[in-house]
Amino acid sequence: MNPPFDVAAIKSDFPIFEEKMRGGKRLVFLDSGATSQKPWAVINAERDFYTKHNAAVHRGSYYLAEQASAAYEGARQSVADFLSVDSDEVIFTKSATEGLNLLATSFERSAGQLGIRAGDEIVVSELEHHANLLPWQQLAKRTGAVLKWFSMNLDGSLDLTNIDEVITEKTKVVAITHQSNVLGSVPDLPPIIAAAHAVGARFVLDACQSIPHMPVDVRAMGVDFLTFSGHKAAGPTGIGVVWGRAELLNQMEPYLYGGSMIESVTMTDSTWAAIPRRFEAGVPNMAQAVGLEAALKYLSNIGLPNIHSWEMTLTEYALRGLQEIEGVRVLGPQSMQARGGVISFVVDGLHPHDVGQVMDQYGVAVRTGHHCAWPLIRKLGVVGTTRASFYLYNDLSDVDVLLESVIGARDYFRKR
Amino acid sequence: MELDSLYQEVILDHYKKPHNKGLPVGEIQVHHVNPNCGDEITLSLSIKDGVVEDLIWDGVGCSISQASASIMSDLVNGKSVAQAGVALREFTELMQSKGNISGDEEVLEDAIALAGVSKFPARVKCALLSWMAFKDAAIQNGAEI
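^ inputs. structure came back:
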């Protein structure tokens, strides 16, 4: 169970771990699925941008504006390198949520084969976070398209037995997560991507829970679009990425209108800039883009395969430990097959909020409730779960405190 | 332990054996949700001669939200709308006090045990859910509260 890198050294890169929690406890941060902590490299990159390079990108003819533009476009190139794609296919958004709304709205506005019209079908799954459900659900309502979905099995996998009924000749878009943010299950995507492409539909991958944690080869997967957020990948808040195949993005209409995204404007009409600028109206979140670049370089230096391998070690240790605690039930996948570094569980007779409150006394930060995936939670037949999610800065002692705090929560209410 | 100030004995008693919990049968029913955590409550009551009667509630949620609903139902059932309004305002103020006031036991009765919640900002909404449902139901029954 030796980590493939020096976890203590990694932890010291993240200043938040010097902070004390309630009762003077050290921070056992197991909520990276919600947002990750930030290393000095990211904090310093943002500070450097503000202290040395700050000016509105793509506008001024002065030295500082050139610096800012170079920093921002350099960040775009770094994201493209990280994904092994072309830089003009990388769109900066303020979040993954905005990215998914961008795609849904852009499809709606686009002419021809990419457009969404009444009677078309959009496919999602019961695993989805609200951010990858609501944009499509509301798009269907606005256009008269039909929203369909793959059902979730109780082990967190998707039921693909009816794939031919879910994906049909009418399907235009299939949007599915790479990994459940609640259960950690990784759906079997290759047959879904193949089925989507067989009927000419586009596949959108919600990669929020995968890009920060494992190597993702978007070209090999064959997806058409991908979104992720910076803040879950050790990067800043306020920055997200949409990647899309250039030949598709070139045919798509803008999402937000305003400065920077135009080619020409008159009082009555406008034409659009080339991609990716077409999708980046207004002065972008420049410092955050530069911060994201620093985050991705930080992760790449450690190595995504190493990060993933260590998270799997932590997850297996935690999974076994939780499964052995009497009165605790792990939900979703019960083994290490097809899963990532996220575990949801319930404690018999206790509401997740009460469990999380006691765990907080141990310095343990976990997410409780429905995790912005209410349909999935309903399917599980629970009011919510307690979720532990792991990242590169966690170590085995964090898992030990997790297990101790769960037992503590169980016993706190049991004995009273 | 700081936790014991939150989970007072009386709270856990109400949580384990909630009062006035059942199928709301009143003509006017209100349904309130805490979208952050998924807690839900349905509540009905009647107001006769300015007195709150037949407050029944049902719901799902954490110990704080369930105990608070039980305590609130005991407190306002049989009280005049004016008295219930005083308790509602006193309780709301207590919850927003961040632990700086201890509340008037004469007015709040068992609800005084929830004072510790005000030191845990994430839980204040849990405690207030049923009280806001009560306020809504009273207004819908024509009360000025």
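The first helix of chain A runs from residue 7 to 12. Residues 7-30+303-414 of chain A form a domain with the Aspartate Aminotransferase, domain 1 fold (CATH 3.90.1150.10).
thumbs up if we can close this ticket
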